[in-house]
Amino acid sequence: MTEYLNTGEKELINRTINIDENFIQIKTQTENGVDIQVLKIVESKLNRETKPPTIIYDCTSPDGVYPTTYLFLKKKL
Questions:
Q1: What is the mean pLDDT of residues 60-71?
Q2: Do the Cβ atoms of 34 and 45 come closer than 8 Å?
Q3: CB-side neighbour CA atoms (13 Å) of 48
Q4: Do 73 and 54 contact (CB within 8 A), yes or no?
Q5: Neighbouring C-beta atoms of residue 59, cutoff 10 Å
Q6: Which end of the chain is more exposed for a tag (fewer CB within 10 A), N or C?
Q7: Structure letter (DSSP) for residue 3
Q8: pTM higher than 0.85, yes or no?
Q9: pLDDT of 18-63, one tens digit each?
Q10: 2 to each of 20, 22, 62, 64, 65, how far by Cα in Å?
């Protein structure tokens, strides 16, 4: 599920997110196929004081033009 922080709108999306040390790759299934977005991780922070803990990734497009922030809840599986 994706929540847009500026509107609070939530949407179920068929999406795969892969995170490595330097990049986040997002594959999203669309009506026209697969959309792939790659973001460079500028900084990551783990907030253990939230329940569940929250991981925040400050990212940018590979060319440095589009800043993006991703927030993930760290859940046990």
A1: 86
A2: no
A3: 0
A4: yes
A5: 20
A6: C
A7: E
A8: no
A9: 999 999 999 999 889 999 999 999 999 988 888 888 899 999 998 8
A10: 20, 22, 22, 24, 23
Q: What is the pLDDT of residue 77?
A: 46
Nearest Cα to 72, choosing from 40, 23, 53?
53
Q: Token pair for residue 10?
A: 């939530």
16/18 Cα distance (integer angstroms): 7
Report phi then psi at 33, rounded to 5: 130, -135
| Position 3 pLDDT exceeds 80 | no
- Cα separation, 77 vs 75, in Å, equals 6
Question: Which residue is it, tokens 């490595």?
Answer: 20
Buried/exposed code over 21-55 (b: 16+ C-beta within 10 A; e: otherwise): eeebebeeeeeeeeeeeebebeeeeeeeeeeeeeb
